[in-house]
Design goal:
This protein is mainly alpha-helical. The chain is about 55% helix and about 10% strand. The chain has a three-stranded antiparallel β-sheet with strand order 1-3-2. The longest helix is centred in the last third of the chain and has 25 residues.
């Protein structure tokens, strides 16, 4: 999966990858991290659907269960995909703000 396939900035796949970029987390912790940092709340169906797709594409991997919780980790491919999309988003923000003559906060 390339950066182009990850979708818009609030795409759940991007949010999950960004959450896992700073460490392993289980599903509830991913949801809380996204809500706390971005203000987007993913429902369980959306979250676990995204987790399944990211695992199938090799962008994240599941770790051994810790009781009832299964943690997930971003893979090297997932980190590369996230970095590429983040760079594209940064470039778009710079271009857009420049053309609007707005300075970044």
């Amino acid at each position: 999966m390339g950066a182009d396939e990850l979708g818009r900035w609030a795409e759940p796949a991007l949010l999950v990858l960004a959450s896992l970029a700073d460490g392993d987390k289980h599903g509830y912790a991913i949801t809380q991290d996204i809500t706390d940092n971005v203000g987007v709340t993913l429902g369980p169906g959306t979250l676990y659907g995204v987790i399944t797709r990211l695992e199938e594409r090799g962008l994240i991997e599941s770790l051994p269960a810790d009781g009832r919780r299964r943690p997930y980790r971003i893979t090297a491919d997932g980190a590369r995909a996230l970095a590429a999309q983040a760079a594209r988003m940064r470039d778009l923000a710079t271009l857009s703000l420049g053309r609007l003559q707005v300075r970044p906060a």
